[in-house]
Amino acid sequence: MHPNLCPKIVFFFFFFTILGLIARVGAIGMNWGTTASHPLPPPKVVELLKSNNITKVKLSDADPLVLQALSESNIGVTVGIPNTMLRSFNSSKKAAESWVHDNVTRYFSNGGSGVRIEYVAVGDEPFLQRYGEQFLPFVIGAATNIQAALIKANLEGKVRVVVPCSFDAFLSESNLPSKGHFRSDVNKTMIQLLTFLSKHNSPFFVTISPFITLHQNKNISLDFSLFKETAHRHNDSRRTYKNSFDLSYDTLVNALWTVGFPKIDIVVAQIGWPTDGATNATSFVAETFMKGLTNHLRSKLGTPLRPRDPPIEIYIFSLLDEDQRSITNGNFERHWGVFTFDGQAKYHVDFGQGSKNFVNAQNVEYLPAKWCVVNNNRDLSNATASATEACSVADCTALSPGGSCFNISWPGNISYAFNSYYQQHDQRPDSCDFGGLGLITTVDPSVDNCRFSVELRTSRSDSLHQSCYFQWTTLLTTILVCFLRFTW
């Protein structure tokens, strides 16, 4: 070999090696949920995403107002199919084709105007353990029919089908990643899913939740969850784990290896840290976690089982707080947002937006600066019962132990409950009655970190419009499926 060729060969080897590593580090996207009583208008949310250079977003459904707002934004989009639709799409190819036409083809961008749809997520964590077998029998059939519908629409290879998997779909009883495996009740279906994904060159979407792991596993410390260098390390044979993310990730990697899919690409579809509603759920701790996570991803080190092979994409959970999310797992579920419900940053992290500070939503329209508080001039002996009734409808999760409003004294906590109910009902005068115990005031009753919110203007009517639209769409889909069953 000519001696002058050696340096060139070495240069090109390292160049393409580095290029390959860079290609493996995908963008950091956001989960955008709309389970809120007064959601921020979609155009404002898209403006928020663009202002912060967020280039990918994952949706839990295919809300037409959201998709319209995303048109021409050049943001990569994952549209979602709710779990409740899986049975229909499993049993009917026509229903799947109709959904793809209405929610993908209609909006899809072919390099011009439209929405840059990249994935269709079939189900929203349908393998979640608390669901049992409610959705399990329908996942593969639904995914197969959606894939067929995409092929028929000439979108094969342009839009890929995925199935988001929950953090509890895989486990290791010993907490050792080398013993990681899928739950026995989903193992067979998981093999079918992985076969399907591999056939169509689709990645494996998964949730990793260091926060929930911290609360469920006494062997995991807060420092270990927050990527602290001083955290006690976990050893697994010759491998050393410095943080909870790597531990969970490699538990999944071993589970994939165990069923014969060791090299499949992984997308972390949900990962985040809540800021209220539980112990260790604060903006400060969330910021520490996010900075640790982003620094770890930028290091490109990967994990012990996948060195220099990080997830191809990662989606932060979540963009905004949602006051109507289910709190089955805990009151923190309504506080995952990096931004508050009105698009104001809770903390600042460089996700690659080119700045260490987030840009807040601009020109947000609120209801008048009015609050509902307890009337101290009345007999308050029944006030607690009234507050409990208000909280059964409104969002009082900030009053939880460890929450931002947990330490406000009585009757301040009663006022918080009254105001939450009042704002959720668009500040209607009768929603601050509570048998004469409520009083409308223009003096902000917020105390320290306990914020008494004022809701967004007119957003509730938009929310109701969306709700009615989805109910109508679901009804039409159901009618179509029933019709097809009787006519085929």
Task: Write structural notes for this entry.
With 488 residues, the protein is α/β, with parallel strands linked by helices. Helix content is 36%, strand content 12%. The protein contains 14 helices and 14 strands. It has helices spanning 5-24, 42-51, 64-70, 86-91, 93-105, 139-152, 187-199, 210-216, 222-225, 244-258, 283-298, 383-391, 412-424, 459-487; strands at residues 28-32, 56-59, 76-81, 116-122, 160-162, 170-171, 181-182, 204-207, 234-236, 239-241, 266-271, 313-316, 371-374, 438-441. An eight-stranded parallel sheet has the order 5-4-3-2-1-12-11-8, covered by helices on one side. Helix 2 links the parallel strand 1 and strand 2 (56-59). Helix 5 (93-105) packs across helix 6, helix 5 packs antiparallel against helix 14 (459-487) and helix 12 crosses helix 13 (412-424). The longest helix has 29 residues, at 459-487. The radius of gyration is 24 Å and the shape is globular. The N and C termini lie far apart (70 Å).
